[in-house]
Amino acid sequence: MTDFAIEARMIAQTYGRGVECVQALRPLDFDLERGEFLVVAGPSGSGKSTLLAIISGLLTPTEGRVSVLGRDLQGMSRDAFDRFRLEHFGFVFQGFHLLPALTALEQVSIVLERQGLRRQVAATRARGTLERVGLGARLGNRPSELSGGEKQRVAVARAIAKQPQLIFADEPTSALDSDNGRQVTRLLREVAVEAGAAVVCVTHDPRLIEHATRVVRMEDGAVCPG
Asked: What is the pTM of this model?
């Protein structure tokens, strides 16, 4: 088995044609090892979110190939990829992406049920994960009853409860205060280092950068040298 969770070769992304062509991501190679907590840093418009979208399969690159956990993403059907993503990926987005009608416990357990866990088993794991992120007293609260920091911790719990092999995080601490930001950073690093998953974060936040096992810096759609 390869040590790489992700291997991308000469991936690039362009939008438009002719004089209106915009190169969001210049051709580059990208590797992510199992157990890494990798941070992709750079200014707005540097291409880091485009890179994250491509390596997570949310965007098909204009050029190049992406292999994740030994599977060629471009060679998979949409249904096969959706099953693969459900089984192996966790996502943490800046906008939380929580369902307004569900409680914190339901937000996490419903994903586990979709993976095939029985309802009681899913609820037990969801409860334990929410307690791990400090939300044991907020299990019955819906998003409208939670602070921004609590919503993000629900989102993190939802991602890590699946026990995924890969977690993709887009600015996971941007809306958090210093205490919540440190807690989320610690949890993501634990998942990578202790559980052997691979975590890749796009961020401006130095709290994440200083705990990364590796940092990739981007500018103008390319990886900075060194």
From this structure: 0.91
